[in-house]
């Protein structure tokens, strides 16, 4: 009898251990902080301790449960925060919060607050999505490649890897009983990888972003960046539509990786105003040693509006350059030095003259601005 009980207990313990091994929850994150020097802030230089210079500081929980037969339950809860003052960047899980199912043969279906296809398929080809960080985002992150906003109430599908080809799509509900199409969003994209070559294309459309609503987006990049104050576009609440799309390629050859990307963002409001931003980027990174890497980027951005200014000009454009050196102290910790410069010229239909970087919150008091940042990043 005692022998039978011992065997039963051993079997139960074995199954309990197997069950426990099939589920996991992982704590992860990035802590990035340093010193940043910015020129032409109210006609002066600005010196500041800053957070998220190369990557936004964040912490999160990632869970997996193996259901058998190749099917798994997954979830992610991720929060961004400011290392300099300890404050959250919005709600508790302001970056991502989703749950869903994934299968090795059929792909992944998730529900919650998630990034769009521009982040999934275009951003990995750019400097901002790989080595360059926040200040290499295109003018005020107009195409959202640095994840200025996430999409609430979203259902997202991502295919498995089909001999190098992958695709996906997302639909974000308005959750508004009085307007199904008000403050909703949809997005789709695809990528292809073969040896060192990677290609990507994506599209996102947002209708009726609302700062205080319960829909897909609360606010939008260009609405907050340029606003109604200078006539570029109506403020949050009157923004009728935002459309972002892009395509690009990158190639890795030994220690060198280079990429070229084109993106376009279009905004229109209910008053008939419209503005279009075109961004062309070329970037490259070279690993001099396993620990030391250097990178360079150039982006050209132009803007066109729906009405000409008093001079009949429609030629606002910006040049943006970046250089970076990064040294790994370990597999998880690195130090960096980066310089970024932006020059603006011309005016267009809506008189855009601002020069500024996403994440700096300091518009230039002239048509040019430079940033030098150095700091330390730790991943866990």
TrEMBL record:
Source superkingdom: Bacteria
Keyword terms, alphabetized: Cell outer membrane, Ion transport, Membrane, Porin, Signal, Transmembrane, Transmembrane beta strand, Transport
Main subcellular location of this protein, as a coarse class: membrane
Molecular function per GO: porin activity
Location(s) in or outside the cell: Cell outer membrane
Pfam families: Porin_4
Signal peptide: 1-21
Entry-linked InterPro entries: Gram-neg_bact_OMP, Gram_neg_porin_domain, Porin_dom_sf, Porin_Gram-ve, Porin_Neis
Topology with respect to the bilayer: Multi-pass membrane protein
Gene Ontology terms: cellular component: cell outer membrane; pore complex
Residue ranges of every copy of the Porin domain listed in the record: 8-338
Biological processes per GO annotation: monoatomic ion transmembrane transport
UniProt keyword Transmembrane helix, yes or no: no
PANTHER family, per the entry: MAJOR OUTER MEMBRANE PROTEIN P.IA (PTHR34501:SF9), PROTEIN YDDL-RELATED (PTHR34501)
Subunit structure: Homotrimer.
UniProt-recorded name of the protein: Porin
């Amino acid at each position: 009898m005692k022998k039978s009980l011992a065997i039963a207990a051993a079997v139960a313990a074995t199954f309990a251990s197997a069950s426990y091994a099939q589920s996991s929850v992982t704590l992860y994150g990035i802590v990035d902080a340093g010193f940043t020097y910015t020129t032409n802030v109210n006609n002066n230089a600005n010196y500041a301790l800053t957070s998220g210079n190369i990557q936004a500081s964040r912490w999160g929980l990632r869970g997996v449960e193996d259901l058998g037969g190749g099917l798994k339950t997954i979830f992610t809860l991720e929060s961004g925060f400011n290392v300099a003052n300890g404050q959250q960047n919005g709600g508790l899980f302001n970056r991502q919060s989703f749950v869903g199912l994934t299968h090795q043969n059929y792909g992944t279906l998730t529900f919650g607050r998630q990034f769009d296809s521009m982040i999934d398929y275009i951003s990995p080809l750019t400097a901002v999505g790989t080595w360059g960080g926040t200040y290499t985002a295109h003018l005020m992150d107009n195409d959202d490649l640095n994840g200025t906003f996430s999409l609430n109430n979203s259902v997202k599908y991502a295919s498995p890897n089909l001999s190098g080809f992958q695709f996906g799509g997302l639909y974000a509900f308005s959750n508004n009983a009085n307007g199904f199409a008000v403050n909703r969003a949809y997005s789709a994209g695809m990528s292809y990888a073969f040896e060192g070559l990677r290609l990507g294309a994506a599209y996102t459309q947002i209708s009726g972003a609302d700062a205080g609503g319960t829909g897909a987006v609360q606010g939008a990049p260009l609405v907050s960046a340029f606003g109604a104050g200078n006539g570029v576009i109506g403020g949050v609440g009157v923004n009728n539509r935002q459309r972002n799309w892009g395509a690009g390629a990158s190639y890795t050859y030994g220690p060198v990786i280079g990429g070229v990307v084109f993106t376009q963002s279009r905004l229109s409001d209910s008053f008939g105003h419209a503005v279009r931003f075109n961004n062309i980027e070329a970037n490259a990174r070279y690993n001099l040693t396993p620990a030391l890497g250097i990178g360079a980027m150039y982006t050209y951005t132009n803007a066109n509006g729906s009405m000409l200014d008093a001079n009949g000009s429609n030629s606002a454009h910006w040049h943006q350059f970046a250089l970076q050196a990064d040294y790994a102290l370990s597999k998880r910790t690195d130090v960096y030095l980066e310089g970024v410069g932006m020059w603006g010229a011309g005016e267009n239909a809506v008189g855009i003259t601002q020069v500024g970087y996403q994440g700096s919150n300091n518009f230039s008091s002239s048509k040019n601005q430079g940033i030098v940042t150095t700091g330390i990043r730790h991943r866990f």
